[in-house]
Amino acid sequence: MDNILFQSYIIEERSYASFIKREIHNLVRPHFTEQRTGEIDIVVSEMVSNLIKYATRGELLYRLSMPDNEPFFEVICIDNGTGIKDISHSMKDGISSKSTLGHGIGSIQRLSDFSQIYSQPDWGTILYSQFSGSLNSTKISPGNTLVRCINVALPGEKVSGDGTAIRKAGEKTLVFTGDGLGHGEFAKEAVDAAISTFNNTNYSDPSDIIREIHAAVKKTRGLVATIGILDHRTKEWLISGIGNIAVRLQRGLEYKNYSSYNGIIGLNIPTRIEKNRYEMEKFQQLILCSDGIKTRWDLLHYPSILKYDPMILAAAIYKDHARRTDDMTVLIVKVL
């Protein structure tokens, strides 16, 4: 999985609209056909217009990645409005009511390769759309897993010191989330070096991988990180971590938290690092958050959200719990 940053725009007034639409058009145009670029333009225009017209405060997240050298564009529309009472009714073209995302939702669903909408009264709405250069728009799925990630830089920064990586090795899926100390280029340097080591290691034990990363990043400012390995043969998770990456294994409304060791990878780590073992269960979700996300989120606040794509949950956590004083990452790996 590519470690691609989401670009974020807070939308509070109409003057932002033309700039944002032009930025996205210029980003996707070299990678999609003229027709597909036009359809993306329509979807983005509908999202931005609805945020301006109906939302109390809105944010647009978007990114372009190239898995398997094919373009994959994602856009997430988040608002803090009064929500949509009847989503099925709002899907009809031209339907709109006060303080809701109504107009244009039907066309957004129709033009996207994949799209979902989640809304609650007096909470707001999340709309997620995908556009792929192939027929398979959910390809970010190593092994029997579905992977979704939101990584947003500290406001004002061009790069993020958070980083994620997912890869398949035999019958195992390896997951990495790291946070370089501080933010900006030097934090990114540390996490990039860690990801490079993670992607090229021959180890299959998370504690051994952490030690190898520790040796590789000593010339950087260091980082905190957690590594999870899902063994599809033994049907168990192995998890090891150093520092304050929040780790939760969620299945339904039940969950288990993992407590990492104190330390900084590249500077000082414990001599002995034990790995924790957890039973793998179908539809279980491993959720990893950097410290740019507050830890006290509760799934009970998001009724029925597990029925949706994991990106909706990642966006809900980001919406309500992003600190915005640091880089912000939510990574979710769902067992299928």
TrEMBL record:
InterPro entries tied to this protein: HATPase_C_sf (IPR036890), HATPase_dom (IPR003594), PPM-type-like_dom_sf (IPR036457), PPM-type_phosphatase-like_dom (IPR001932), Ptase_RsbX (IPR039248)
A Pfam family hit: SpoIIE
Histidine kinase/HSP90-like ATPase domain: residues covered: 29-119
Domain PPM-type phosphatase, residue spans: 171-335
PANTHER family named in the record: PHOSPHOSERINE PHOSPHATASE RSBX
The protein's name: Anti-sigma regulatory factor (Ser/Thr protein kinase)
